[in-house]
Amino acid sequence: MTHAIRIHETGGPEKLVWEEIPLPAPKPGEALVRHKAVGLNFIDVYFRTGLYKAPSLPAIIGMEGAGVVEAVGEGVTEVAPGDRVAYATAPIGAYAEARCIKADRLVKLPEAISFEQGAAMMLQGMTAAFLIRKCYPVQAGQTVLVHAAAGGVGLIMCQWLKHLGVTVIGVVSTEAKAALAREHGAAHVLLTSEDIPARVKEITGGAMLPVVFDSVGRDTFNLSLDCLAPFGMMVSYGNASGPVAIPDLGILAAKGSLYVTRPTLATYTAKREDLIARANDLFEVVASGAVKIRVNQTFALKDAAEAHRALEARKTTGSTVLLP
Known about the structure:
It is an enzyme of class 1 (oxidoreductase). The protein is α/β, with parallel strands linked by helices. It folds into two domains: 2-122 and 270-323, Medium-chain alcohol dehydrogenases, catalytic domain (Quinone Oxidoreductase, Chain A, domain 1), CATH 3.90.180; 140-262, Rossmann fold. 30% of the residues lie in helices and 27% in strands. It has ten helices and 16 strands. It has helices spanning 42-49, 115-135, 152-163, 175-183, 196-203, 221-225, 250-254, 265-268, 272-288, 304-312; strands at 2-7, 17-21, 30-39, 59-60, 65-72, 84-87, 98-102, 107-108, 143-147, 167-172, 188-191, 209-214, 228-236, 259-261, 295-300, 319-323. Strands 3, 5, 6, 7, 8, 15 and 16 form a seven-stranded mixed β-sheet that branches. Helix 4 (175-183) links the parallel strand 10 and strand 11. Helix 2 crosses helix 9. The longest helix is centred in the middle third of the chain and has 21 residues, at 115-135. The radius of gyration is 20 Å and the shape is globular. The model has no long low-confidence stretch (mean pLDDT 94).
């Protein structure tokens, strides 16, 4: 037996229930991982509320964790018992003391990286990696805009983009978060209360931007389009303010033959070689010190509801982990 946070129906944080559940042996191709830390991400809220549908109920949510392999099923060659591992692209199920998971979704965690860092950075860090390395390969000398620049993905992106020679315009909701974004590499920081497109026009001398990275969703979609130069790309990778309604495609023509993409980490790491490549990209910049992973909040796993309330109220900065 083990303990886990489960939802029996979708809704608010109060639907997160701490329960004892069976712990099966790993099946062929699986590994049993004893979690040392579990990541907290906005996608967890989406599954809890029902915006994203769990395969069935009751369900254990959570996409990201780090721990130690305790056992492996038949045919597993990717990891072995005793290995320090982390993951971020497996099916939901991380809000548990231990779980069985497909071994080909695990990556070995370097000794220099703690379990807390591993749980805090895999989903957010590999998201940053695929966004700026594959989805829109940024180039030194470019200027880009990052929404939610003081969040977990935002702080990683600000640091990584600066390391690559890119000028970052960060958008945040408070002055305190503005200071945090500047500290992590944002050259310009705008508040959500400002006229964002007008400020971007001022900063760029009218040139506008080749790309906007937007995790906020409904509230910022149209203004993000207004920040783009002709042929620019809007990368919409989250729904913190709610889902985006598909606009009249004529808007993209009117605003300069723009591109819009709605990518997911799962697609960009579906092949194991791509998963390993993105993880290695992340491990490299963290090990070099170019990107520092800030675990600014920790909660006991059994207190996941409290963590969700803090996240939804935008009271968190950087990364948050849940400790079994």
